[in-house]
Amino acid sequence: MMWTEREKYIAFYREMIDDRIEDGSSEQEAVASLEDVLTISNAILSDPENKDKLKVKPSALTITLLILGFPLWFPLLVTAAVLILSLYIVIWSLIIVIFSVILTFAVGGIVGCVTFAVKLFSGSASAIFVLGAGFILLALSILLLFPALLATKYLASLTVRIWKGIFSRILKKAGNRV
Amino acid sequence: MDAQLKRGLLDICILSAMQNGDSYGYKLIKDISPYIDISESTLYPILKRLELAGCVTVYSREHNSRLRKYYRLTEAGRQKIREFLHDWESVMRVYKYIEEGCSVDTE
Fold it and tell me: Which of A20, A174, A175, B68 makes an SS bond possible with A25, Cβ 3.0 to 4.6 Å?
């Protein structure tokens, strides 16, 4: 809605409140005697006079500039999108690498325990060493798992917040134009 | 009351309220409310529509250190009232016809 239309609505309701106060009501009574905000806003939005004004129509100049500037803004937009996507991939690749390391440690620990059993029966002196190494790897995988899970949870919520922030700014800009 | 019927009546009621002199928003609501339900959210779009149709003119005047908008009935507005009163005779004929139909049904 154009700013002047908005001002007219505000002026009308302000006048209603002032007239009620002048008629003997308190400010709270005057405001309370009006309909609720939702009803008023629905009435404004459903007014056929406002329906066209609520549609955001780009001007001829805007459309012309968009077409002429296409070779400039489109590559920039694509570059920005690719950069954001790359950052996303890098961050999540790091998470994947960390979980891969944890999985490797866990598998190595299990293999170490199994190898110990095999070496023990074959009488190998290195059986104890292999068992120890297996336990260390298992312990490392368990120790690293919980911080990795926490980091993943934090990154996921951060990503969601960033996207929500971007979208809400875009929607706010569109709403301000209305 | 049917919404469409009420809408038609409200326009005429608002114009009639100005027959004896210029009026303003709150006074219009006070004058009309005893006869038909009206609120601020209903009044403002009607006033806008009547102004666009040339049935009223709007001007601002200072009142107690603030500006108040006043509405004045135009000749086109008076004509609209006359047309309504004329059309109402046709409406009353239809009303009597419906009323007679209902009384035949109940017999």
Answer: A20
